[in-house]
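Repro:
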Amino acid sequence: MNFVDYLEMEYVKDEDREIITKIPIKDYCMNINGIVHGGVTMTLIDTACGKKASEYFEGEFVTSDGYVNFLRAGKNTKFLYAKCTAKKVGRKLINIDCDVFDDNKKLIAIGRFTFMKV
């Protein structure tokens, strides 16, 4: 079992046939204030961006860098959903933007990650 399996993340397609990565929000996903832990949101973004990068890169690649802006607290939701867009695809690097939403389609966080072929 890998980390993504442990967190029960899954990939679904939206009405535009774009991949959405979703994670169920369980008790262990919460911080001490009862809000989705920032690390869970960052893991979702990194994983979703990596899935998007796999549409462009064959073979091995790794996260080179990334950042996240948290826009509102993740609470009162059963899932978080991540939708990604490739912004710049090169031979060795790819930049991916990601939006994270809750069940009510409120924007929770945005991220930008770069992946590098190894």
